[in-house]
Write a structure and sequence with these properties.
Blueprint lengths: L1 H20 L1 E4 L2 E5 H8 L3 H10 L9 E3 L2 H10 L17 E3 L1 H10 L5 H21 L1 H35 E4 L4 H13 L4 E5 L5 H7 L7 E6 L7 H10 L3 E5 L6 E5 L3 E5 L11 E6 L3 H7 L3
Parallel strand pairs: 6-7, 7-8
Antiparallel strand pairs: 1-2, 2-4, 3-4, 5-11, 6-9, 9-10, 10-11
Length: 300
């Protein structure tokens, strides 16, 4: 008999520790999820919520309320206990939560032998959590402020990291025969990065470059310097300008290599003509020394 009592005390202690981990602060109230309450009472979650709906007049909002999508998302992302092994992750409906008064009301409605003992443990856990929060209120307030700052810093870090990653992707690339899409995708990234002007120097331009330039940002001016050998007509330019202005094409024989200049401050060297992307091994390199831009454009 003494062994059974000792065993029951140990189980109650373990239960109290578990219950404390199930109490969250939402809308300024300490609450428990319906799925956690159902688990403790050995009921199905839907049975718990059905009991509430049948006795809705006993459950005002200060006793029980339904979470919105943002609150559920916040719980799933920030609380360890709501992981993929817990109930409620893939639920059809948004969960309900119970305050201390709501759980007390619910325990009186459930016809279950375990409800009495569990309810006492839940009440004890709520009381201990209130005392803990009250005695550490200043610390929690500071932690909340720090948490918000860290979240903002994370957003800024991700923004900068993504920008650096994109810049690194366009800095230096070597493409091998057959990597047509990869090379095409990099050229499109470079074109889309322009905010004001794109200058393309390539002696063997054809209609394919016009298709790429349809991806440019609106109102970005494009100037193409090419040789008389290029297979692009005035009619092609006129039709392009009807939908994607402004495009200008000029003829020159002063250049051997291929270059792309973005907004007069970024310079790319292409080892092959843009129309031949992926046909043979070639490289695209970003030239960091922007002084070359002035030397190139002064000869135009």
């Amino acid at each position: 008999m003494e062994d059974e009592i000792k065993k029951l005390e140990i189980q109650t202690e373990i239960l109290n520790k578990d219950i404390k981990r199930m109490i969250y602060t939402i809308r300024g109230k300490q609450v428990m999820l319906d799925s956690d309450v159902a688990m403790l009472y050995h009921y199905e979650t839907k049975k718990i919520n059905q009991t509430v709906k049948r006795n809705i007049e006993r459950f005002p909002e200060k006793f029980c309320f339904q979470l919105n999508e943002q609150e559920v998302k916040c719980l799933r992302s920030q609380i360890v206990t709501l992981n993929k092994n817990r109930r409620g992750q893939h639920r059809k409906y948004l969960p309900y939560v119970f305050t201390e008064q709501g759980i007390a009301m619910l325990s009186g409605l459930l016809k279950n032998n375990i409800a009495v003992q569990v309810s006492i443990s839940i009440m004890d856990a709520f009381v201990e959590m209130r005392k803990f929060i009250a005695s550490n209120s200043q610390i929690f307030e500071r932690l909340t402020t720090v948490e918000y700052k860290l979240l903002e810093h994370d957003k800024q870090f991700n923004k900068v990291f993504n920008q650096l990653q994109q810049e690194e992707n366009t800095k230096q690339k070597i493409f091998f025969k057959g990597q047509i899409y990869d090379a095409y995708n990099l050229i499109i990234q470079i074109i889309r990065s322009a905010k004001n002007k794109i200058l393309i120097i390539d002696n063997y331009i054809d209609y394919s470059i016009l298709e790429m330039l349809t991806k440019k940002n609106k109102n970005v001016e494009v100037v193409i310097l090419t040789s008389n050998k290029s297979n692009i007509s005035k009619l092609d330019v006129q039709k392009f300008n009807q939908e994607y202005p402004i495009l200008k094409v000029s003829r020159t024989n002063q250049f051997h290599d291929r270059f792309i200049i973005i907004d007069n401050n970024e310079l790319y060297h292409c080892g092959a003509s843009i129309k031949d992307l992926g046909k043979k091994c070639f490289g695209i390199n970003k030239i960091e020394d922007t002084s070359f831009i002035k030397q190139i454009t002064k000869n135009i």
